[in-house]
């Protein structure tokens, strides 16, 4: 804001100089050093000066109005980009005390932002960044649940396979003492156990194949964590965005 006010003050000085030159031009054209003028001629000179000043002032004021509009347009666009709502009360523009305060404000040093900056920062944080963070948090939670379930299934399958394999390995050692009938029963059990292990192995292969999905989910989760970290960093820097808008 300081730079903008300095710019328009500079334009004001330039315009005053232009008006002074315009008056001098009229004086040089209309008035000679040794001439005597009637009242009508004096009125004509004054009117000519007035017309020149009015024309130049109208042009410069219109240009200045458009420049102010362009500046405000940039401010509002930046604010909208950060989900900041700017509300202006036109009535304050005619507040004599506020104008006097602005007149006496020094813009050679940074303006203290205080609570105004905090309010602006909070508004910025309540916008798109928070929406993105909330969405990513939900995605992360969902991915973590899927990872936990898949990991649990893999652990249970591996444990079951290990237990069955241990039983199968231990069975032949007890076969000689079981007798003929016991041996047949044991053989039947071994056959069933082998079939069960085969089925379990196929199931495990399927689960291990699904572990590619597990790795994919882990990669997605890592990516979500990185995005969350970046967004939280942006939120932490939201104050600087507020300063850019305010200044």
TrEMBL record:
Any single Gene Ontology cellular-component annotation: cytoplasm
Keyword annotations from UniProtKB, A to Z: Coiled coil, Cytoplasm
Location (main, coarse): cytoplasm
Annotated spans, Disordered: 162-183
Gene Ontology BP term (one): negative regulation of protein localization to cilium
Record flagged with keyword Cytoplasm: yes
UniProt-recorded name of the protein: Leucine zipper transcription factor-like protein 1
Originating organism: Lotharella globosa
